[in-house]
Amino acid sequence: MNSPYFTLGELTHTSTGLNNKPGEEEVKNLEALVDNILHPARVALDAIKVNSGYRSVAVNRMVGGAKTSHHLYGMAADIVHWRSNLDLYAWIKANCKYTQLIQEGTDRNGEPKWIHVSYDPNNLKCENLRAIFIGKRVRYFQL
Question: Would you state the torsion angle of the CA atoms of residues 80, 16, 62, 93, taken in this order, to the nearest 10 degrees?
Fold first, then answer.
């Protein structure tokens, strides 16, 4: 990784016990995600925690991820900010090019529980969504 703030281990960590080792292409994609979004956000906002980055097919299946998830390619991370996930969302939206930026879940204060950000350099559509969880189902709303 080109950033002193993020490691490959942090971006591939899983508590599932399943193999989650990325290939060369996925590592390159993770590096692009760090270089273009995670590192700049960390410099601007201070500590950011990665809850989930790269996911193998088995890990993605176990955690209920979408079959087309950018996590499978090392192009996405679910992140949280120690102060405010809404501030994190707003900063990325205002300062970065990205594929998707999603406010996911809702905490007791009405803020997103985490922010999902994906970076596919061939599809920087800057799509902004809100994900609401209803049982095991997820509904997405354009923002």
Answer: 20
CA angle 8, 3, 123 (to 5 degrees): 80
**What was the pLDDT predicted at 135?**
83
Statement: residue 136 has pLDDT above 80: no
Give the predicted TM-score (pTM) of the model: 0.95
Phi–psi pair at 84, nearest 5 degrees: -160, 120
Asked whether the beta carbons of 117 and 79 are under 8 A apart, the reply is yes
88-123 core/surface letters (b: 16 or more CB in 10 A; e: else)? bbebbeeebebbbbbbbbeeeeebbbbbbbbbbeee
Q: How far is residue 48's CA from residue 82's CA, in Å, rounded to a whole number?
A: 7
